[in-house]
Specification:
With 68 residues, this protein is mostly helical. The chain has a domain of 32 residues. Helix content is 72%, strand content 0%. The chain is elongated. It starts with 9 loop residues before the first helix and ends in a 6-residue tail after the last helix. The model has no long low-confidence stretch (mean pLDDT 87).
Length: 68
């Protein structure tokens, strides 16, 4: 993989997760498509969690909570 993968913003990722959940709830997808959608959602959830952790650390540092 020579090209760096560019992730969408947190908000766009969250919107995509919601769209995937909506599609999964319809139960009208084949197993291969379901598997792909679940993998995509899992990747987006990991990305969102990492973004939240990073933001939390930045806020803590900004308010001096990381020092001690």
């Amino acid at each position: 993989m020579s090209k760096k993968e560019i992730k969408p913003s947190y908000d766009k990722s969250l919107e995509r997760i919601i769209a995937i959940v909506d599609e999964l709830e319809k139960n009208d997808k084949g197993i291969d498509e379901l598997s792909d959608m679940v993998k995509e959602a899992a990747d987006l959830i990991k990305y969102c969690k990492a973004q939240l952790r990073q933001t939390e650390e930045e806020i803590s540092q900004a308010f001096g909570e990381g020092e001690g």
